[in-house]
Amino acid sequence: MFTSSMEPTLVSRCAWSGESKSTQQYPSDVHTSVVFTRSIPSGTCFGPCVLQGSMDSIAFIAQKSSDNRNKAYVFRVDPEALSNSALFLSWLRLIQTARNSEEQNTEAFLKAGQLHIRTTREVRDEEELLLWYDKELCHLLGFTDMKREFSTDFKCTRCSQMFQHEYPFLAHCRFLCPQMKANTWRSQDFTKHMEAHSLSKRQHK
After folding, report:
1. Which helix (H) or strand (E) segment is 133 a member of?
2. Neighbour tally for 184: CB within 10 Å
3. Minimal CA–CA distance to 33: which of 51, 54, 62, 8?
4. CA pair distance 21, 14, nearest whole angstrom
5. S-S: 65 plus which of 38, 124, 171, 182, CB 3.0-4.6 Å?
6. Is the pLDDT of residue 119 over 50?
């Protein structure tokens, strides 16, 4: 296992684009993981990451979700590095996706139209960051409705693939199933949904 505390220059050279497709190979596919060099309390926020105005600029977190994880590259990060907005996207691309709520310790959320993450519990030093979405983004991405429709056996009704954990199952059914219809909630539909949601929140303030 390779451990590094250096800036992830590989990811810095691979800037995320909202036009990227779900089939693109990400730098995080190299089995990276991120651990903090010191403990961080629950509710600590990092960011922002400016969105590209499409579903892909948020969905990449789910698209790298998997039942199995191999940690070939471990990056030890001072939490202050994630407070630097210029470096935030680079580190965000290296954080692995949680497989279920039990192991999740960070969540992605929207604030003023930008992507942030925050710790959902205390993260101890040398503990790996494992990320998923907050309730609002789960709703915007369609996961909330999906959880109501599917049973607890984590079996895709389209291709019959079985999963061991909830989050990889949701990501597969929502974005990655090869049997999924091409017109299932396109990126422009997501953008409109986000705009309507933001307007609704402003009206209720």
Report:
1. strand 130-133
2. 12
3. 8
4. 14
5. 171
6. yes
